[in-house]
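Look over what follows to help learners.
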Amino acid sequence: MQQYSILYKYNVNNRLWFTETKYKDHRGPNFMSILNFRCIFLLPFIIVCMSGGCGIQDPDFYNRQGVSLDSQGRINDAIKEYKKALKLDPFNREAHNNLAVSYHKMGLFVEATEEYKKVLELYPYDPQALYNLGTIYARNNVQDAAIFVWEKAVELKPDFSDAHYVLGLAYTQKKKYAEAIQEYKKVLDKKPDDAITHNNLGVVYTETGHLDEAINELKKSISMNPSIAMTYKNLEMAYRKKGLEADANNAIKQYEELTKKNQSQ
């Protein structure tokens, strides 16, 4: 049985969030009387803080500190800052997201999953958090769960190319080739020069017997990135299925030469 090679790429969204300022106004009808009551206790509180009796009580400060530390590659220190932010504000979506991404980059997938879920509990309409959560599900071979969250991600953000791409991969693995083709085409609508997506679309066309389309896509992939050896192998298989033996032999020769060159580097 011939084996084709889908090329994989999972891009964890490393976007870190911080809020410059939060303005919250929950004034009710008795706002002024409540304000006057609180002012009675405000002066001694200020005196205690000025004398060193309290630390910074702004969760966004710690969140920003974490983002800064993360940008320096100090992820463990960043995690400590995000946890400080969440101790002050357990519902801080930005800090939960940043903590999730930090755990994810460190390979702490159980902890990252927990934090992404907290982000989505606070705001279910976040396509990036859904995408990142899906990459963990896919890594753990929980494909149905991955597909579910990725479908929600593209529903919320129809032009989300990374999510369309991974959906194409997942549908291909489940042999849902019509759906895979549509997802890869959506990627190429935004990224027409994506060699890997052209390769994968060519593989799906070969699987479904659309050999002219397969050869066209694989040739496009090679023209955009001639250094991917496996694309020549996929092209060879498409040519053989179509009965073009000379073209197939030439493609496999290029595959072998490029593989040998890559191994020697």
Summary: The longest helix spans residues 31-50.
